[in-house]
UniProtKB/TrEMBL annotation, chains A, B:
Acidic residues: bias regions: 119-129
Lineage per the UniProt record: Eukaryota, Metazoa, Chordata, Craniata, Vertebrata
InterPro entries named in the record: AH/BAR_dom_sf, PX_dom, PX_dom_sf, SH3-like_dom_sf, SH3_domain, Snx9_fam, Sorting_nexin_WASP-bd-dom
Family, as annotated: Belongs to the sorting nexin family.
Keywords: Cytoplasmic vesicle, Membrane, Protein transport, SH3 domain, Transport
UniProt gene name: SNX18
Name of the featured protein: Sorting nexin
Assigned GO CC terms: cytoplasmic vesicle membrane; plasma membrane
SMART domains per record: PX, SH3
Native source species: Crenichthys baileyi
Length: 571, 571
């Protein structure tokens, strides 16, 4: 008898081996026993893969179907339910329903998703090449030298102590153990491989990423050529004789002469490149996807605002703003060049573990104890910030709802009652009361208008705050992984020290681990510092914008009431 | 077996023969059959009297107690439920629950109540004399000439055609029939007796009430010496060594040198005198009584405001403001003189039917058809005004409740969320963010303060509107009776014309009825005109006050927000 399970939350496969499933779907499981929170099974079409154990409810063997635990509660409680608590475990996001009780929050995005499946933008069209380089044989290593003879110095960097190439990948792990959890961010990000000295790649001067010592600790070297980029004119385009349609946006960077036209799927592709490229950088999340109604004006406007926020965070980031793939995305206007650049980015060797090869650190190594304390402090901070932004988001979402519903209704009811009174008064047959009747009627109209003001206001002040919070909730969702990589590196340092003490590792090898942990720590602290800087900048700007809008709003109400008051002046 | 009935609404006896009862009380009925909507019965103390049939629920004979119809629905539907519909029937007010679904409306007062029973102010103390003149023998007629030799010309007026004295009271009614409904306002007010020519009394020059022809029809001659009166310093007084306590108010009229001290019961006594004295004048209702907590600050402040409104309407009325008993109330500072004036007022002959003797009309008689159309128009107007004030009252009562509850809560929740965010931000260990944190914290405080503003506001703007509406709802409750008297008179005119055509009445007698109907019509139209004038004045003033308060309110909010915005200026 087959073991069946019912899917209780939608799950989108984000890594090879995972199985995308939809709520309500029935799966056939290989075993009831989960492995590190994952169950193996196959769907009705026979496709096999892993699904998170918390996303399904085991129904039992065929015969027992429908008679065994049909509640929506996940059967397993040994799988973390979200937030920092799961940091040391798996990085897979929990079902949204478990972490957040607020409705419109941006869905948790995962740093490491590859091409999105079920995206609202189709990918398979002639402008883009849907095949990825990873599928093509014989393209590993040394590409840049071959394809680009542009004279920049390119050199091979390796972290192998006295060894070259990838052949020794499993060897050094015999000394300092590899993490057996293949879903660990530390492993997936390449952090582990880098610390253990397994990363290797050619780094051009242009790829170098500098961490410098600033007044508050390590920070990314500022982009010497800062720029910004506007996103305008969302335009509906069609192709295949109208069979397919999509929205394109005009992107106008300040540092290039020509605007470019990009679709959401291009952003999405870029996001995927950046996420795999920069393990300890919090790549801003794209505005959430929406399966239906994506050509509706509200949605387009909302998405555009989200993309503007996203772009703002991209261009503000000293590392992200400079990177090749982003520049290609912003500047390429030629179709052929686009394809070439796309292919190049997808073949990029300096992703994951190799990314760390590109980082240059300040001369003095960091005090790891101090680093650990700073990271722990930041962890506490992000937890608090996560809680309070969640609360603020819920509160202002409710506030917006109330203003658009109850508040509007109350003011309009008052308006209508005044108008009813003025209508009753108009029956008094007295000429001397017509001025009063008009005044009361105008007052009624004024309150109806004020009700409308309340209805319109949230889109002007609360919505931008919610957009801000959504963006930051994205960052806060990224940081557990960022921190996890640094923590993993630090654990390796401690392990190596122990091994040296026990004579199981030579000091040179341990020093190498130390140095590489220093690189990861510098990058992590620089990223944290950057986060604080943009956070202060963004929240200041948004609080000011919010208060300015609120002031304008109450002044508008006051003006309307003053207008009404004047009507009584010459009665 | 005794027939029992359960009282379902409180009823306060307002006329001799009626029985005050309380909700839940069990009565023993004489008969299950009501007479014109009244049932006779006795309470548990054996006191016997009439109660409105709709106020009780008949339980059946003792044995059937509790097994017979225990719903709260009145058993009889042949008794009018309120408003104009009952005009031609009885004038007894229906239970409040049946006419009004809004909570804080002033309870319906009856024009013709005598000493209030169950009042919250005790009456039986040494300062006041609780015995009424009606109980004393030998005090009918011609008193003024005997007791007051002050030289004003006093003359006897009678409406009897060619006859003098009261002997003929029943005679003329043989021709134009008397209304058999002893509860009819037309009968109770003395309107019927006057129209039928049965009223008789001595009218001094000072008692004359003039109706003049104004631009909009008949109106009361203006008071040539207008004045106003403030009500201040509600002070708790005790007597009987602290056994009894009461609140006294300082009344300061502008036309006398000395303020007087009055209690609510004095207002109540005055109200009763005025209500029986002026059948076609809408005597403003006193602020509602409250049995418990009458020394609480809120209640005292609310009552004082109500008394101020009442006083304003009294001093604004050309007839009421000048009348002896009101002047006595406003000016008498001597205890002995007070008693004397009180006794005199209670002995006043010119009440009810005789009141109409005091009215002098414009020379040209009114066109009754036009009068009827005006009265009907006013009836429609009052109905519409009653509905719309009821609606407005309900709306703003709810609006006030929302502002003090939901609105306050929403703003304060936003405030608290901002503060929580600033507290989270304070954990960031970054010195450069402390300004922002302070700004957000201040913004949080500002929203909490704004929540408080919303809580406080209704007492400043909506409460006065509700006070205004309560006062006008009192007037609107008076007008059915006022109109009823005029309608009754008009009916008598029509009857008399028919009788003349049929040769049953001589033309002189019919002309007398015509003339007296003209007097009632003039007074009624003058009162309606006065009502419209003060209505326009009061609503204009209150709408202005309301809007001014609202403007101040939103400006205060704006100011608070501007203060918050400034905190972000120098970050």
């Amino acid at each position: 008898m087959a073991l069946r399970a019912k899917v209780i939350y939608d799950f989108l496969s984000e890594n090879q081996g995972e199985l995308s499933v939809q709520e309500g779907e029935i799966l056939t499981l290989v075993s009831e026993q989960d492995v590190e929170g994952w169950l193996e099974g196959s769907n009705s079409r026979g496709v096999r893969g892993l699904v998170p154990a918390t996303y399904v409810e085991i129904l039992g063997h065929d015969a027992a179907l429908n008679s065994y635990n049909t509640s929506a509660e996940p059967r397993y409680s040994n799988v973390p339910a979200g937030g920092f608590a799961q940091l040391e475990n798996i990085s897979k996001p929990p079902p949204v329903g478990l972490t957040s009780n607020t409705a419109p929050l941006q869905q948790h995005h995962n740093n490491y998703k590859q091409h999105s499946q079920g995206s609202d933008d189709d990918w398979d069209d002639d402008w883009d090449d849907s095949s990825t380089v990873a599928d093509e044989p014989g393209t590993v290593g040394g590409r840049y030298r071959d394809s680009e003879g542009n004279g920049t110095s390119t050199y091979r960097v390796t972290t192998h102590t006295g060894q070259r190439g990838n052949a020794m990948q499993t060897k050094s792990s015999a000394t300092v153990g590899k993490n057996l959890n293949r879903f660990s961010t530390f492993v997936k990000s390449g952090g582990e491989a880098f610390v253990l000295g397994e990363a290797s790649g050619f780094v051009k001067d242009g790829d170098k990423i500098c961490v410098v010592m600033g007044p508050y600790g390590p920070e990314w070297q500022e982009n010497p050529y800062p720029f910004s980029c506007t996103i305008d004119d969302p335009t509906k385009q069609t192709k295949f004789k109208g069979m397919k349609s999509y929205i394109s946006y005009k992107l106008t960077p300040t540092h290039t002469p020509n605007p470019v036209s990009r679709r959401y799927k291009h952003f999405d592709w870029l996001y995927a490149r950046l996420a795999e490229r920069f393990p300890v950088i919090s790549v801003p999340h794209l505005p959430e996807k929406q399966a239906t109604g994506r050509f509706e004006e509200d949605f387009i406007s909302k998405r555009r605002k989200g993309l503007i926020w996203w772009m703002n965070h991209m261009t503000s980031h000293p590392v992200l703003s400079k990177c090749d793939v982003f520049q290609h995305f912003l500047t390429c206007t030629d179709e052929k060049a686009w394809k070439q650049g796309k292919r190049k980015a997808e073949k990029d060797e300096l992703v994951g573990a190799n990314f760390f090869l590109t980082i240059s650190t300040p001369p003095a190594p960091l005090d790891f104890q101090e680093v650990e304390s700073k990271i722990d402090g930041f962890k506490t901070f992000t937890k608090r910030m996560e809680d309070s932004t969640m609360q603020l988001n819920a509160t202002i979402n409710e506030f917006a709802r109330k203003q658009m519903g109850g508040f509007k209704k109350e003011y309009q009811k008052v308006g209508m009652s005044f108008k009813a009174l003025s209508q009753a008064f108009e029956m008094d047959q007295q000429t001397y009361s017509s001025g009063l009747n008009h005044g009361i009627s105008f007052t009624g109209d004024a309150y109806e208008a004020i009700g409308e003001y309340f209805y319109e206001q949230p889109s002007k002040d609360l919505d931008p705050i919610m957009d801000l919070l959504a963006l930051y909730q994205g960052h806060l969702a990224n940081f557990p992984d960022v921190i996890h990589v640094q923590k993993g590196a630090l654990t390796k340092v401690k392990e190596s020290q122990k091994h040296v003490e026990e004579g199981k590792m030579d000091r040179a090898q341990a020093n190498g681990i130390n140095d590489r942990c220093n690189i990861i720590s510098c990058a992590t602290l620089a990223e944290i510092q950057h986060f604080h800087h943009i956070r202060v900048r963004d929240f200041k700007a948004q609080m000011q914008h919010y208060l300015q809008q609120q002031i304008t709003f109450y002044k508008k109400i006051t003006g309307k009431l003053e207008e009404a008051l004047e009507k009584y002046d010459n009665l």
